[in-house]
Amino acid sequence: MEYIATFLFCFIIVYLCYSIVVIFRKKGFEKFKTSKQLMYFEKAYKINKNKINLKHFAQSLALTNAFIIAITCTIIEIFDNLILKLMVGFVILVPLMLLMYKILGTIYKKKEGK
After folding, report:
1. What sign does the CA torsion over 49, 51, 53, 56 have?
2. What φ, ψ does residue 11 adopt, rounded to 5°?
3. CA 83 to chain centre
4. What's the whole-model pTM score?
5. Cβ contacts of residue 60 below 8 Å, gap of 6+?
6. What mean pLDDT is reported for the chain?
7. How far apart are CA 14 and CA 17, in angstroms?
8. How far apart (Å, rounded) are the C-alpha atoms in residues 90 and 78?
9. Are 71 and 96 in contact (CB under 8 A)?
10. How many Å apart are CA 41 and CA 97, to the nearest integer?
């Protein structure tokens, strides 16, 4: 039960922070349009940002990033040693990012075609 609470707390905090700073602020959303993260999706998954709804994409990316960080935080809470937490966190974070971004990129590539 403690791990579920940790997951939900991390997920909500990260999602709210990302939403407030990037999505709901006009200046933040303008920076998102030229961000490295969006360029990564353009290059890696050949997504045309002019053919997708950037607000929906930013929301999806916020949910994805919140999920990645919440899962990582929840898993590292199992360990007591700081060095072990850092190593396990890194080992979990990188493949999880690649996997989730692959899924998100594939979904938006399909949406772009419609």
Report:
1. negative
2. -60, -50
3. 24
4. 0.87
5. 104, 107, 108
6. 91
7. 5
8. 15
9. yes
10. 13
Which of 18, 20, 25 lies closest to 67, judged by CA?
Answer: 18
- Contact between 79 and 85 (Cβ < 8 Å): yes
pLDDT in tens, 55-110: 999 999 999 999 999 999 999 999 989 999 999 999 999 999 999 999 999 998 88
* Cα(37)–Cα(76) distance, integer angstroms: 25
Tokens representing 101?
Answer: 């971004």
Count of residues in the chain: 114
> In whole angstroms, what is the distance from residue 65 CA to residue 2 CA?
21
Within 8 A by CB and 6+ apart from 38, the residues are 32, 49, 54, 57
